[in-house]
Amino acid sequence: QCPGIEPLCLDLADWDATEAAVGAAGPFELLVNNAAVAVLQPFLEVTRAALQRSLDVNFGAVLHVSQIVARQMIAQGVPGAIVNVSSQASQRALRDHAVYCSTKSALDMLSRVMAMELGPHKIRVNTVNPTVVMTDMGRINWSDPQKSAAMINRIPLGKFAEVDDVVNSILFLLSDKSAMTTGSSLMVDGGFLVS
Predict the structure, then answer these.
(1) Where are the domains of the chain?
(2) Which candidate, 58, 71, 59, places its Cα nearest to that of 22?
(3) Which has the closest alpha carbon to 160: 186, 195, 191?
(4) Which residues are CB-neighbours of 94 under 8 A, at least 6 positions away?
(5) What does the annotation say about its assembly with partners (predicted)?
(6) What span, in angstroms and rounded, lies between the C-alpha atoms of 104 and 59?
(7) Which has the closest alpha carbon to 85: 47, 19, 137?
(8) Strand partners, 192
């Protein structure tokens, strides 16, 4: 659908492979960090493997890929924009989401620090924080009608987000229409956090 875009398939937890692949793929002006995993476990049952995988993908990969891309932007002297896909779970505790909520909270703070440090280089950094999005992962984790009903009842707009709801918010934050927006979190949650 988008000529000129070449996908790179790699394990973002492998820093050396990521450095080689992303480093050779530039130059960049825009970056969206969207990779994530959601391994849902009760707090008392969180495993080391689930914790490490979540930290590697939800936090470490964002930090590393952003470093690679931001260094290229700075070296080229071009302004840029980075959008990190976070979650409403960064700001609200959810049962069985101890690791997911924590990694997304860390991502929000990382994004603010990035905005502060990259701003002088004319690189803006923001997050979008959606509610449940009807992706494959969203359907897997929220297919139980009892579980989904309890969440939907807490969303004033009465529904989960569709992929386009998130994409349109990302496009806004990447565009010049948000030229004075950095270090912000754009909630795409149907009002979940105000309920």
Answers:
(1) 28-188
(2) 71
(3) 191
(4) 100, 101
(5) Homotetramer.
(6) 8
(7) 137
(8) none
Amino acid at 64: H
Give the residue from 12, 117, 118 showing the smallest Cα distance to 59.
Answer: 12
Helix (H) / strand (E) containing 136 = helix 136-141
Q: How do residues 64-118 score in pLDDT, each as one tens digit? A: 999 999 999 999 999 999 999 999 999 999 999 999 999 999 999 999 999 999 9
Homologous superfamily (CATH) of 28-188 is NAD(P)-binding Rossmann-like Domain (3.40.50.720)
CA dihedral of 108, 77, 21, 163, whole degrees rounded to 10: 40
- Give the 3-state secondary structure of residue 98: helix
Structure-token pair, residue 153: 């009842």
189: region left, alpha or beta (phi > 0 left; psi from -120 to 50 alpha): alpha
* 22, amino acid identity: V
Give the tens place of pLDDT for each residue, 150-190. Answer: 899 999 999 999 999 999 999 999 999 999 999 999 999 99
Tokens of 174: 């990447």
Reply yes or no on whether 35 is catalytic.
Answer: no
For the record, the structure tokens of 33 come out as 């960090």
Which one of 57, 60, 100, 189 is the catalytic residue? 100
pLDDT value, residue 111? 98
